[in-house]
Amino acid sequence: NRQFRLARRPAGMVKREDFEFRTDRPRPPESGEIMVGVEYLSLDPAMRGWMNEGKSYIPPVRLGEVMRALGLGTVIESKAPGFAPGDTVSGQLGVQSVATVAAKDCFKVDPSLAPKPLFLSALGMTGMTAYFGLLAVGEPKPGETVVVSGAAGAVGALVGQIARIKGCRAVGIAGGAAKCRYLVDELGFDTAIDYKSEAVPAKLREHCPKGIDVYFDNVGGQILDDCLAQINLRARVVICGAISQYNNTTPVKGPANYLSLLVNRARMQGMIVFDYADRYAEAARDIAGWMREGKLRSREDIADGIETFPETLLKLFTGENFGKLILKV
Ligand code: NDP
């Protein structure tokens, strides 16, 4: 079993030295457990937060513990009812090639329905985040303008496409011309803003002539402030993430333009995808249906080799990933 354990709490960007790479014999399953051969790992910006000490929506990864990660693999051995060798399962498997975990924390997926990586992408937590963040928290109505940041990323790309499906104008904010072209030409966004080379406030004014009704925030920082400045009466601001702040060595500064919420009687609300777990099946059905009808596309960026984990994870914070970042074990 090859695995990455958290060796120390990172300061700023993660480094290889923050982890210990170890090889040992996998632990046989006890009652209620399954042993899984891990095939794919989901690399998520949230992993950076899990490495920090402090109170969050789930406890931090302990020092010396296998780094937490969602994954997908095949059951090798089972001591749990309902799970048999050969079953494909997904759950918190950790950054390792073989995981012995409680079966109740995993769920079975049917690999005949879609390519396996998709269960960590549009049909997995990423898709659920976009779906419930936009529809349940953002509550978009047809004709409204939806702005999403991190738009060419895994969650953001789905948010913009679902906004279009719901009859909204979709405006994406992403880094670089290639990602912006992709949003408009391939995914059907109405328009895209390159925050690395364009002035975001001026471009928002140009592309959102009727203001912003829903802002889906993946990045926080200056872009959140720029969007807050242009929200409409009763706008909804969905706080999904703040990737621009995750590697800060100083505390996160709140938005300077928050009084825009007061002036506009607007609402800014945080969301955690796990709160919608009992409705995942409904979302997966809708998303799979849209994919079948050709209305929604999912893009995966698959890196190879568990040994590359620290460097591959870093791609999320440099913007080198193009699509849902997945590590093929
Ligand atoms: P992405 O695929 O979007 O990858 C991260 C992207 O963030 C990069 O490609 C990069 O795109 C962008 N980025 C990195 N640094 C910065 C920066 N300083 N400023 C602006 N953009 C930056 O990852 P995910 O789709 O998996 O996650 C997107 C967001 O959703 C994250 O904030 C994550 O924490 C959040 N999330 C929240 C969940 C919840 O339950 N609330 C669940 C899942 C995800 P670019 O090249 O455009 O800069």
TrEMBL record:
State the UniProt keywords alphabetically: Oxidoreductase
Looking up InterPro entries in the UniProt record yields: ADH-like_C, ADH_N_2, ER, GroES-like_sf, MDR_fam, NAD(P)-bd_dom_sf
State the organism of origin.
Acidiphilium iwatense
CDD domains assigned: PGDH (cd05288)
Q: Does the keyword rRNA processing apply?
A: no
Q: Which domain of life is it from?
A: Bacteria
Q: What is this protein called?
A: NADP-dependent oxidoreductase
Q: What Gene3D superfamilies does this protein map onto?
A: Medium-chain alcohol dehydrogenases, catalytic domain, NAD(P)-binding Rossmann-like Domain
Q: Where is the Enoyl reductase (ER) domain?
A: 15-327
